[in-house]
């Protein structure tokens, strides 16, 4: 019961954050939620992870470096045991444990829809010698049949002749991502560009 209530609040928080991103980008309120909608609405799920201590962390990679495939990620991480790092300016930066806090991460779909104004974040989890690390990661993602593409208003604002990012169906991206999760995201975007002629780009659903 507690978990159900917790995740319901997180889903509302994710939608509030998406609207704040819209405001910052000059997009109409609700645009990002609509872009995630598909025929059944956005998807939302939570993953609980346990990272046990490792006596020789230098011998393993932990959770290898990657960007998340989806939309916005809300991470309720351990308040005592560290391990999460993000890549900034070529350096791995620790994300310290903070009590009663939620770490916000952005995935590949928001990078595409914002035409690169927001970037998906490369991150990893390194093994620790002491203490179990627990985390609850909630993912607010597009529906499986949602068509993802750069917001036209952001492309027009820059007066670009063509979008930098591809158009694709989210489910197709996830199939590609499954085998390439721990590789660079740019080749994934390029691979989806090659599939663009098969994408039926319809209007964004209204909710």
Please, could you describe this protein's structure?
- A hairpin with a 2-residue loop joins β4 (84-88) and β5.
- With 207 residues, the protein is α+β, with helices and mostly antiparallel strands.
- It is globular, with a radius of gyration of 18 Å.
- The longest helix has 24 residues, at 2-25.
- It has six helices and ten strands.
- The chain has helices at residues 2-25, 31-35, 108-113, 152-157, 170-180, 185-193, and strands at residues 43-51, 63-66, 72-77, 84-88, 91-94, 103-106, 123-125, 133-141, 147-148, 168-169.
- The chain has a four-stranded antiparallel sheet with strand order 1-8-3-6.
- The protein has one domain: Sandwich (Jelly Rolls).
Summarize the model shown.
Helix content is 29%, strand content 23%. It has 207 residues and is α+β, with helices and mostly antiparallel strands.
Strand content: 15-25%
Quickly name the level 1 CATH class.
Answer: Mainly Beta
The 3D shape can be described as: globular
CATH superfamily: B-lactam Antibiotic, Isopenicillin N Synthase, Chain
Strand/helix succession:
HHEEEEEEHEEEHEHH
What's the number of domains? 1
C-alpha-based Rg, rounded: 18 Å
Q: What is the count of β-strands?
A: 10
Distance between the termini: 28 Å
At the fold tier of CATH, the topology name is Jelly Rolls
The level of helicity is 25-40%
Secondary-structure class: alpha+beta
- State the major sheet: 4 strands, antiparallel
List unreliable stretches of 5+ residues: 203-207
Strand order of the largest sheet: 1-8-3-6
The number of helical runs is 6
What is the typical, i.e. mean, pLDDT?
A: 89
**CATH architecture identity:** Sandwich
